[in-house]
Amino acid sequence: MVLAFVISLLRGETAPLPMDVFWSVLSGISGGIGISALYHGLAVGRMGVVAPVTGVIAALIPVVAGIVLEGVPSWLTLVGIVLAIIAVILVSRVSDETSGPSGLRFALVAGVAIGTFSVFVAQVSEGHAFGPLALIRLVEAVLIGIVVVVTRSAWRTERRWLPAMAGIGVLDMTGNGAFILAVQVGSLAVAAVLSSLYPVMTVILAAVFLHERVTRTHAVGIALAVGAIACIALGSAA
């Protein structure tokens, strides 16, 4: 939140408009609910169910909204969108043979909330990005704080994890800021489906730094993701 606010000052952004505040509050609420539901679903359910279901729903909602609000993109871009959604399903699949709760209900909540977050944040007026993002982070912090107080959940963490947590915050803020800028200069459907390909980078980084094995399913998903990006780029440039 602090970093987003500082960047907004450095960019010379003016104070958010009333409608920007409205959309930022909605984005903060939906984003806070979505991430909380996703993490809780991964913790109590099966990753092989929660991850792909959340990813697909979170991608489909803004894609449909973008087509409704902005019109149908070119056929090549549509092909890229379909390939990207298939890639998300394949790359998000996890070898999980454990029994127990699937976590499907949390995945559905997470997917809908994250998908609507993308739609809400895309409504921020042009020229405003990091100011509204700082407000979104404030709303999320208040929302999580209320949940912690009401449920009396443990919230303190070991000091050694603080640098990593701060790094995660910076990366998450950068990604959201880039998404806002992308939808202001381009298509919501395209920006949403490209940003939904983040599991591809997760799989690649896990293979490089953690030496995790890339399964055949993951490899096919990565290849489809590359093809999706190429189709969307060519279709958008046409």
Computed structural class: mainly alpha
What's the total count of β strands?
A: 0
Radius of gyration, CA atoms, in whole angstroms: 18 Å
Tally of structural domains: 1
Kindly state the percentage of residues in helix.
over 70%
SSE series: HHHHHHHHHH
Distance between the termini: 38 Å
Mean pLDDT: 87
Biggest sheet record: none
Low-confidence stretches: none
Shape field: globular
Tell me the strand percentage band: under 5%
| Number of contiguous helices | 10
Verbal overview:
- Helix 1 (2-10) runs antiparallel to helix 6 (130-151).
- This protein has one domain (2-237).
- With 238 residues, it is an all-alpha fold.
- It contains ten helices and no strands.
Question: What's this entry about, in short?
Answer:
The chain has 238 residues and is mainly α. The chain is built from ten helices and no strands.
